[in-house]
Design goal:
The complex is a heterodimer. Chain A has four helices and nine strands, in the order βαββαββαββαββ. Chain A is α+β, with helices and mostly antiparallel strands. In chain B, the strands form two sheets. Chain B has a five-stranded antiparallel sheet with strand order 1-2-3-6-7, with helices on both faces. A three-stranded antiparallel sheet of chain B has the order 4-5-8. The C terminus of chain B is likely disordered. The chains are: A alpha+beta, B alpha+beta. Strand 9 of chain A pairs parallel with strand 4 of chain B, so a sheet runs across the interface.
């Protein structure tokens, strides 16, 4: 029976990681589902759904030699994998300002209370070491409408953080 | 009154440059009726291009009038449409009946001027902004064998603000 696994790999960035990892998986008979692979702070991070006919330990044995060669830490989990189950976000929130401890926690807590279900969040630190800027990009489903999100973020906005909330008007053409 | 089957990528007919309509006869008019029925049968159907039902002729139908508070030109049958002027740009989220279960961000002109024949053979000019302009560009792309997948931009680094045109009360026709 085909089973889905979530494979997580993290380590110092170097050329060829994606090619070597995906080739090893392909040669072992895996098929990839949804994946995200990106560089975070000089590390390369991979989270990928792979379907595989064998057991978790067998898949670990497939990935371990490549992970070792590339000096990546690796983790494999059996998951209830589902494809063709995308959630369509209806709101995008971008936030930026001077880097402040706790900004993600306070923003996301306020948004959760106001009915936002986050489907994607990514954040970055730009600017300089002396004067860092925090930038956050959130997409999700506003269960209680966008007005409630605006109200929820009013107090955070008053602290000098720039917040833009805009609907995502997806059309199917 | 028939509903035609919408073809899905990777059907080759979606990658073909469609041919102009030379004469508007009963066959074309009957096809346009069926094409419109097909569009309206889709949930939220606001635009369709002839190649999406496997007929590679330059015919597009759009009708965004169901969306509240936007500028629009009402129900439009656009035969041999030509975009003559582009202005500004905006990122928006698009999906496609021919590419199920995926939506992505695409940059489109914010404002366009186009000319096209209507069902009576008369050449008309239209000015479109915002949502309607976006839908028109998506559908006209189909006539040139282009899908929104050909124009995807990154979801992650998308911090463009969408411009919103404020319609006046006289704008809706």
């Amino acid at each position: 029976m085909i089973k889905w696994y979530m494979i997580t790999l993290v380590g110092g960035d170097k050329p060829g990681i994606v090619a070597k990892v995906t080739t090893a998986l392909y040669q072992a008979g895996c098929n990839l589902g949804e994946t995200t692979m990106l560089r975070l702070g000089g590390n390369f991070t991979i989270m990928l759904m792979a379907s595989f006919i064998g057991a978790e330990e067998t898949l670990e044995r497939v990935i371990e030699p490549v992970a070792e060669e590339l000096q990546l830490r690796c983790h494999v989990d059996y998951i209830e994998g589902k494809l063709h189950d995308h959630v369509e976000p209806n709101v995008r929130i971008t936030i930026f300002g001077s880097d402040k401890a706790g900004i993600v926690a306070s923003v996301t807590s306020s948004l959760a209370d106001a009915g936002l279900n986050i489907s994607q969040l990514d954040s970055d630190v730009a600017g300089s070491e002396e004067s860092p800027i925090y930038i956050m990009n959130i997409e999700g489903v506003a269960e209680n409408g966008i007005d409630s999100l605006e109200q929820a973020l009013e107090s955070i906005s008053a602290e000098g953080v720039e917040i833009n909330i805009e609907p995502i008007d997806t059309f199917i053409g | 009154m028939a509903i035609i089957k919408v073809i899905k990528y990777p059907d080759d007919r979606l990658k073909v440059v469609s041919i102009p309509v030379k004469r508007i006869d009963q066959n074309i008019l009957s096809f346009i009726k069926d094409l419109e029925n097909t569009m309206r049968a889709e949930p939220g159907g606001i635009g369709i291009a002839a190649p999406q039902v496997g007929n590679t002729i330059r015919v597009v139908i759009i009708d965004v009038s169901s969306k509240p508070n936007i500028k629009h030109n009402g129900r439009l049958v656009l035969i041999n449409p030509e975009i003559e002027k582009w202005d500004g740009y905006a990122v928006g989220r698009e999906g496609c009946m021919s590419v199920p279960d995926y939506t992505g961000n695409v940059i489109r002109a914010e404002k366009i001027n186009l000319s096209a024949m209507d069902e009576t053979g008369q050449v008309r000019s239209y000015e479109m902004v915002g949502y309607e302009a976006r839908v028109a560009q998506h559908e006209i792309d189909h006539l040139d064998g282009l899908l929104f997948l050909d124009r995807l931009v990154s979801r992650r680094n998308d911090l463009f603000r969408r411009k919103v045109y404020q319609p006046s009360s006289t704008d809706n026709r």
